[in-house]
Amino acid sequence: VQLVESGGGLVQPGGSLRLSCTASGSTADYYAIGWFRQAPGKEREAVSSLSIRDGNTYYAASVKGRFTISRDSPSNTVHLQMNNLKPEDTAVYYCVADRSDGSTWFHLPVNYEYDYWGQGTQVTVSS
Asked: What does DSSP assign to residue 75?
């Protein structure tokens, strides 16, 4: 499975961005797909995940109500719509796919090895 992200950039506080991740390969190789982020000097954190089987979505408390994850099945592309962005959202965002349940991403050990990672895309929120 290969994951290719796009859509990062520079945006002012309060602005919006949409990230996209196109997955190649079989969806049978993973059960959940979503996004992590890592800011300089900080540990990576799960941002949002989506269950392939039932479409359930999950969010970190820090982004709930501002970010929306969605999936376009025919193109096997996952989007992360980010609204009302804040400077603390600044990070490299990674698309991730894994055989674990997407609801567990926010509780797994920080050194858990997820199956597939994209190359990352920079999101900078600054005036």
From this structure: T
Token pair recorded at residue 78: 């996952």
Q: Over 90: is that where the pLDDT of 115 sits?
A: yes
- Centre a 10 Å sphere on the Cβ of residue 12 and count the other Cβ atoms it contains: 10
Q: 70 pLDDT exceeds 80?
A: yes
Give the separation between CA 86 and CA 84, rounded to whole angstroms.
Answer: 7
SS3 27: helix
Phi and psi angles of residue 88, each rounded to the nearest 5 degrees, phi first: -70, -5
Which residues neighbour 38 within 8 Å (Cβ) at sequence distance 6 or greater?
44, 45, 91, 92, 94
CB burial readout 56-82, b (16+ within 10 A) else e: ebbbbeebeeebbbebeeeebbbbbeb
Q: Nearest 5°: phi and psi at 104?
A: -85, -10
